Amino acid sequence: MDSAIAIRPPSSLAEMRAVWDVNVRCWLDAYGHIFPDDALPDPDAGPDDHELRQRFEYVNMLNETDSGRYVVAVDESAPDGETGVVGFAATRWGDETKSFVGDDDADLWVIYVDPTRWGDGIGSALLDEVTGAIPSRYDRLVLETFADNDGGKQFYLARGFTVIDRIETDVGDDSYPALIMARSLDA
Hints:
- By secondary structure, the protein is an alpha+beta fold.
- The protein has a single domain, classed as 3-Layer(aba) Sandwich (Aminopeptidase), CATH 3.40.630.30.
- The chain is built from 4 helices and 7 strands.
- The chain has helices at 13-31, 49-64, 122-132, 150-158; strands spanning 5-8, 68-75, 85-92, 105-113, 140-146, 162-171, 174-184.
- β4, α3 (122-132) and β5 (140-146) form a beta-alpha-beta unit.
- The longest helix has 19 residues, at 13-31.
């Protein structure tokens, strides 16, 4: 990974807006072949400042309590006026997890890297950072990914995850096959 990449909690609403932008680009690139256009995010219709503030408050709550870790990958060599956000990731545990996550498991809630930076090691660095924050009382890291997300599946398989279940996940008005994957948190 490029040494100009810093992994840290987000520090501003501008960075949260950049997180949204990265998320949209990832959905369009990774899921454009899976979902109809009306189920994909509109890059021109982002969240308003109130929504961004709510997201930022939630992220700060995760990072300040014993319930999760949320970080961004920032390219510190980005031109002035740009946030440099090129990825983000979050884990959650305890009451903040999804329904398929067991009591002794943590949840890899989200991990996305700007498609122009795939293969640069940023995803691995983000995963290491959020996994390293999980308290030792949790045994596994569990995640959900779309079954047709070949790039995501390969990323997770290469990092020790295995498929433990198959489910259906709703996006818009339709359901899509998804995989539940997990890996041990034992060192």
